[in-house]
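This is your field. Pick holes in the following sequence-structure pair:
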Amino acid sequence: MAEIFLSYRRDDSASATGRLADALEAHFGDERVFRDHEIAAGENFVEAIRRSVESATVVLAIVGRRWLDVRDGEGARRLDDPADFVRLEIELALRAGVAVVPVLVEGATMPAEADLPPSLAGFSRCQALELSDRRWRGDVAALIETLQSRFAIESGGTPLDSAGSTGSAALARWSVDLLDLVGHPRRLIARRQTGRAGDPVRSLVFLCAAIVLGHIVLLVGVDVELIAKGSPGAKALGVVAWLLTGLLINLLLAALLAATLAIAWRLVARDAGYRRIGLIGAYIYGGAWLGLCTGMMITTTGAQLIDPAWLGHTLDALHASLATSTPAALPPIARLGAMPMRGAAAVLLVIGALIWLATAGWCVVAWGAFRRSLAATRLQAWLATSLWIAMLAAIVWLPLQLV
């Protein structure tokens, strides 16, 4: 999905929009700039616009001198029509929290709030940029600089100026991505589907980094002595082995989940691609794993304040289980409940539970990325998810029947 969405009226600023789009595509790449003519024939226009706006980083609203007063065949102002596409695009962006930047062309001025429908009141308060015909190249270069510095949109082509990517720009990009991953996961996942061959690799790198980071977070709440003992070198090797083992197990689990989910989606929607489902699944699994580990770290810290020996006994039981291939006899949770729970321990346990609840809610929101990216209906999404859960249940149940 494109990061830059161009909203314009063909009767008002088609020429200026075309010039601007050419400059943006030359700098950022075709896949990062969206115009309405890119919607495929036969595709639902409204749904395509909705997906594109909600997944964009910024909406550039091109405002010409006739933008406010363009009329339909009956003489009514188009902007007063709730079905007007320009109005719909800006409403969607404002409602979804997507940044809107009015771009004034051909001597246009910013519309006043009193001249706009109530649903577009927020548009009148957006800071506008002007593109003058006499200063076109310089103004466009300034706009591109704003898109790179403020919205951290990566350059995909040759820059108009000599400035290249810097460390601060990369840091800004990662910061924006992290915030979007937490607050708008569907938007980030949509942006990661550029159609390039490197998209799956990028998602795999993210997944591996999230898994390793999650295990490092767990180490904060777990004494290293419980994982590896001996000399400092032996402890370091033990921690590395623990991280690599966790990475391998999680990658295998993620592959199983993605494969079964891809089969479920293919049964519901024949055009659902395996690669796209795997890409989306990688981001959701990585985000969920980080939330799970963060909550577990905080909860484990609280449990150790209540009973310092409980975690050690639990890990010893797990090690013994792995060594003998028998079910682990874990210390009962009731042992913690029987001890006084107050002060910092109680606060940490509550925070850990809240983080797990927030992670579950995040997963529900992020799960909508499948429906949006595959242009599926709610019924198809429900069917695919139900089939996937049934397949996982069968995979767990069948081996138990053979034992």
Observations:
- The chain has a mean pLDDT of 82.
- Residues 232-268 form the longest helix (37 residues).
- The chain is about 60% helix and 5% strand.
- The radius of gyration is 26 Å.
